């Protein structure tokens, strides 16, 4: 019937085959808050107004910046140490000013960096069994900033490379492989910013660094040389946070519009003249924290002081941003920590996990993002290849000009890589259980060690008591013999008379 009218025929075919809605396996992702016994209760969360996350998490430990008098401190707890936290629990307390940011080393679960109002950055070695007494001596102290240090980030692929920025407007790069305990000279100082840097983000292989600044500009830099590659100065969008979106060659920024509406914008990382997309969210005032999962291409937007978290899917083609749904809660969050992929519970189809700081309840609440599935078997399609937990190269290699993606161990099944690009590691199903078992073993060994010390002390105390009693008996024996001699002498003298 359409013969002789090709336009009508093609229009009809287009209408027939065009899908009515966008298909997505993450359409029904939902947020599941932990029960009260699986939260961390009684945590004195910092009252700082700094716009940071204040919390850092890895599969072994959770660290949170706390309120304390006379200097700055943060708390390090075992991830499995849920429930009521002892108010006298030992802290990491070596700073002379308030701690403003903390970040775990992505390649070492026992190493954490902190920065403070005292103008220093300190790197700490956490004992395998956790912090059992106040920790005041850091592994490294970095002294280079002239004013307080507000933000730190680890390089995503090179081992022991740390970036810091402060209220002196400088971004400093530190090589922690240096033998000195106190490092006074960074390997590079980047001085392009004219105001305080509000956020830093790396691309996948760490060859590009994006920053947002209080001067309303977004910059893309080459971190090794400090060269400025791109700069955005959008009058309609005042950016507070910026984020590289994995391998999509795009940036996402959150901030406010000219009319003070909270807003997010998408940018082409090679051309920051005009944003690809701008979207107003609401009229609230709290900072929007963006979190991106490059494995699932999901973007989470959590507002400071909000109880809700919006989530989206990102695609490389228009319209780029696809709203999925929103997690709602009555308790506002002050900050958020996120668990790395290797610490998630794959058996419950968990694809992301937040640790929500609820100041009004002195509570840290884990919040799992779950894909609903009927099958209880491992779901390959929602756990694609992910970055390995081993560094791709040393600090010296990166500083010499090499760029590599993260490397997967060769014995891991499913690992692949292209030699120069982003080497991946198949997300293993039993990792959480194995991590839990190892953590329990470490705890048991620590308890045995403590009990052994206590038993030795009791044994030595008993030995000392036995020795003292023997000495007393010997003295009494001597005294008895002396008295017997005196009695005999008296009897002998009376007989002679």
TrEMBL record:
One Pfam family per UniProt: DUF1899
Domain DUF1899 span(s) in chain numbering: 19-83
InterPro entries for this protein: Coronin (IPR015505), DUF1899 (IPR015048), WD40/YVTN_repeat-like_dom_sf (IPR015943), WD40_repeat_CS (IPR019775), WD40_repeat_dom_sf (IPR036322), WD40_rpt (IPR001680)
Keyword Coiled coil annotated: yes
Family of this protein: Belongs to the WD repeat coronin family.
Entries under SMART domains matching the protein: DUF1899, DUF1900, WD40
Keywords on record: Actin-binding, Coiled coil, Repeat, WD repeat
The UniProt record lists the keyword Ribosomal protein: no
Protein name, entry field: Coronin
Segments forming a coiled coil: 466-493
WD repeat spans: 92-126, 142-184, 190-231
Organism, scientific name: Salmo trutta
Entry's Gene Ontology molecular function annotations: actin filament binding
């Amino acid at each position: 019937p359409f013969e002789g009218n090709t336009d009508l025929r093609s229009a009809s075919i287009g209408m027939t085959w065009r899908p009515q809605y966008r298909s997505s396996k993450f359409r029904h992702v939902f947020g599941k808050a932990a029960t009260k016994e699986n939260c961390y209760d009684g945590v004195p969360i910092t009252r700082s107004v700094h716009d940071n996350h204040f919390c850092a998490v890895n599969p072994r430990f959770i660290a949170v910046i706390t309120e304390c008098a006379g200097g700055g401190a943060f708390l390090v707890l075992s991830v499995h140490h849920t429930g009521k936290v002892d108010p006298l629990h030992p802290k990491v307390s070596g700073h002379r000013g308030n701690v403003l940011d903390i970040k775990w080393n992505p390649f070492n679960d026992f190493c954490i960096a902190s920065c403070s109002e005292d103008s220093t950055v300190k790197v700490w070695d956490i004992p395998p069994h956790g912090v059992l007494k106040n920790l005041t001596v850091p592994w490294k102290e970095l002294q280079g900033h002239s004013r307080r240090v507000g933000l730190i980030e680890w390089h995503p692929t090179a081992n022991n490379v740390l970036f810091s920025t402060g209220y002196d407007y400088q971004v400093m790069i530190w090589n922690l492989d240096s033998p000195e305990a106190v490092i006074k000279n960074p390997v590079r100082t980047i001085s392009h910013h004219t105001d305080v840097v509000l956020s830093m983000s790396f691309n996948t292989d760490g060859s590009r660094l994006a920053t947002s600044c209080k001067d309303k500009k977004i910059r893309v830099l080459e971190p090794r040389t400090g060269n400025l590659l791109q700069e955005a100065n959008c009058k309609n969008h005042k950016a507070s946070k910026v984020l590289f979106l994995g391998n999509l060659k795009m940036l996402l920024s959150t901030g406010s519009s000219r009319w003070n509406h909270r807003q997010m914008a998408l940018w082409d990382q090679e051309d920051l003249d005009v944003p690809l997309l701008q979207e107003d969210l609401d009229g609230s005032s709290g900072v929007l924290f963006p979190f991106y999962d490059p494995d699932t291409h999901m973007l989470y937007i959590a507002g400071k002081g909000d109880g809700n978290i919006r989530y989206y899917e990102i695609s490389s083609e228009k319209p780029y941003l696809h709203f999925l749904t929103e997690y709602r809660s009555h308790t506002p969050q002050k900050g958020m920590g996120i668990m790395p992929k290797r610490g998630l519970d794959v058996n419950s189809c968990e694809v992301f996990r937040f640790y929500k700081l609820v100041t009004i309840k002195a509570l840290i609440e884990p919040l799992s993002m779950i894909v609903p599935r009927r099958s209880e078997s491992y779901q390959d399609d929602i756990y694609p290849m992910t970055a390995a937990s081993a560094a791709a190269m040393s600090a010296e290699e990166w500083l010499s000009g090499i760029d590599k993606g993260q490397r997967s161990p060769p014995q891991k099944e499913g690992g692949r890589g292209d030699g120069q690009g982003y080497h991946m590691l198949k997300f293993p199903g039993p990792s959480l259980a194995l991590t839990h078992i190892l953590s329990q073993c470490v705890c048991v060994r620590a308890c045995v060690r403590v009990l052994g010390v206590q038993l030795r002390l009791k044994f030595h105390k008993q030995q000392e008591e036995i020795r003292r009693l023997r000495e007393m008996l010997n003295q009494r024996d001597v005294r008895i013999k002396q008295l017997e001699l005196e009695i005999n002498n008296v009897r002998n003298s009376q007989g002679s008379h």
